[in-house]
């Protein structure tokens, strides 16, 4: 009520402002609309499903019911901060989908908001690091034993054996095969 009076005192029209807010799509509606527009251009149905499901899992529960013009940088930080360092690839893709996901791009284009709330959040979230974790090497005696065994028992070239020594398999499925 006070906002309407303030708007009227400043020369605005409270009724037209109310109609504008009511006609503004929610974030969830904008996500669905954009997904429907972009889906035919994607080669993979899996990509289309991942695009939508990541937004529905992380962003829609928090800001889905908000009008897209009301979403702030603080809201986006609240979505990304819990996963920013724990799941860097997911967080980066989610940020890109929120920023370029045309939900906000669409709202800027339709003059529903002057800026994109994702534009200035990088310094707040911080660096994700390079993600490289080095593995411990085999002790020297184990390396020579493996090299000797491979030379006697297999037909693999020396280079393949050296590559096997340099490679530690983290994936249990790959290690089993």
> Number of DSSP strands?
0
Helix residue percentage: 55-70%
Uncertain stretches of 5 or more adjacent residues: none
Mean pLDDT: 79
Beta fraction: under 5%
Which tags fit this structure?
177 residues, elongated, mainly alpha
Describe this structure in words.
By secondary structure, the protein is mostly helical. The chain has 11 helices and no strands. Helix 3 packs antiparallel against helix 4 and helix 5 runs antiparallel to helix 6. The longest helix is centred in the first third of the chain and has 19 residues. It is elongated, with a radius of gyration of 26 Å. The N and C termini lie far apart (68 Å). The mean pLDDT is 79.
The gist of it:
With 177 residues, this protein is mainly alpha-helical.
Q: What's the helix and strand layout?
A:
Elements: H1 2-9, H2 14-23, H3 27-38, H4 45-63, H5 73-84, H6 88-99, H7 103-109, H8 122-125, H9 140-153, H10 158-166, H11 172-176
Helix pairs in contact: 3-4, 4-5, 4-6, 5-6, 9-10
